[in-house]
Amino acid sequence: MTTKTHFEIAVLPGDGIGVEVIAPTVRLLEQLASRSDSFTLGFKHCDAGALHYQKTGEALPDATMDSCRSADAILLGAMGWPELRYPDGTEIAPQLDLRTEFQLFAGVRPIRSIPGIPSALSDARGADIDFVLIRESVEGLFALRNEGVVIDDREARDTMVITRAICEQLFDFAFAYTRERKKAGTPGRLTCVDKANVFASLAFFRKIFDERHAGFSDIAVEHAYVDATALNMIKKPWAFDVMVTENMFGDILSDLGAGLMGGMGFAPSADIGINNAVFQPSHGSAPDIAGKGMANPTAAILSGAMMLEWLGTRYTNPAALAAGRQLRDAVDRAFQAGLAPYEIGGKDGTSAIADAVEAALEQEHA
Ligand SMILES: NC(=O)c1ccc[n+]([C@@H]2O[C@H](COP(=O)([O-])OP(=O)(O)OC[C@H]3O[C@@H](n4cnc5c(N)ncnc54)[C@H](O)[C@@H]3O)[C@@H](O)[C@H]2O)c1
């Protein structure tokens, strides 16, 4: 892969609090780039989302898709509005269309305790939670998303699709990701989460996982059923290193993981394919708090940090990689100093949290 020093970012703030959390994230990213003489960032804001669909009849305009295609990375807020739906009753969810369009098969969801934020668990080891959930993001039970059928108002059917091509890419990504983490001192263990005891599709998923392990024999593996995994994410989440799972299971388990961290506002994510990647907080548009300045921007800021790390690694730019780590460390220091978002019963809103992270970055630079 070529070395690069300028990165173009397509920014899709989307709906509700998506807009509110992306604004300070872009500000922090601009601040980091302005301090560096080794990389620059350009941001192009693009229309997309359920409210854009309401206005124009288009959720993801061609011009936005073109900007996403030519960008080095895509930064997204959140999309969807529960009252706005297609005639079949499903929601307008262009963020899912992006995953399909760019074949973003690996949904990376780090679940990590933030210093100073009390874990949802009473056990003191809640502070040691540090694992990554990799959610297959283009097929599984989401494969035929808008093509499920309702037959004569009598029964409804959706279909699970697991393909060898996507599984091989997904597992190779997950093993390589686990190997990278191991270099930083983690156990180097990848758990395949499935329901292979019941479904042929998921027995196939597990079989391909075992086959791909042959190329990564330095990585320890284990198999777990999704129901037992839900239990162990509550009983002993500190025991996980990296897990990889089907799309729908990953959708549910990643919200459980966000709950362990303190709430949706803390949980970042990246959807990664071979040539493109979207970085976005795991949460949605949160209509219940939109427009009130109460949204926790931490998940969006940490997603921005993941974006810098990904760009730095992909385009051999150590300064961008380091800037991503600085941003994550600044978040940790800001929370260690006592920030308390509304989400956990505190009084710190979007601006207060973003300002504290900015101050932590400045302190480091001074
Ligand atoms: N990736 C995405 O864009 C995405 C993900 C999930 C849901 N959605 C869409 O978002 C809309 C709302 O969905 P939902 O209510 O199920 O999920 P949600 O994540 O928007 O909200 C769930 C709960 O978490 C809270 N919350 C979420 N993010 C927060 C933050 N940053 N700070 C503080 N509190 C936060 C909300 O107030 C709400 O109580 C729906 O239209 C849904 O389809 C989009």
From TrEMBL:
InterPro entries: ICDH/IPMDH, IsoCit/isopropylmalate_DH_CS, IsoPropMal-DH-like_dom. The keyword Oxidoreductase applies. GO terms for molecular function: 3-isopropylmalate dehydrogenase activity; magnesium ion binding; NAD binding. GO terms for biological process: L-leucine biosynthetic process. Its cofactor is Mn(2+); Mg(2+). Keywords: Amino-acid biosynthesis, Branched-chain amino acid biosynthesis, Leucine biosynthesis, Magnesium, Manganese, Metal-binding, NAD, Oxidoreductase. SMART domains: Iso_dh. The keyword Manganese applies. Its EC number is 1.1.1.85. Residues 8-357 form the Isopropylmalate dehydrogenase-like domain. Pfam families: Iso_dh. Homodimer. Belongs to the isocitrate and isopropylmalate dehydrogenases family. LeuB type 1 subfamily. This is 3-isopropylmalate dehydrogenase. It comes from Devosia litorisediminis. The lineage of its organism: Bacteria, Pseudomonadati, Pseudomonadota, Alphaproteobacteria, Hyphomicrobiales.
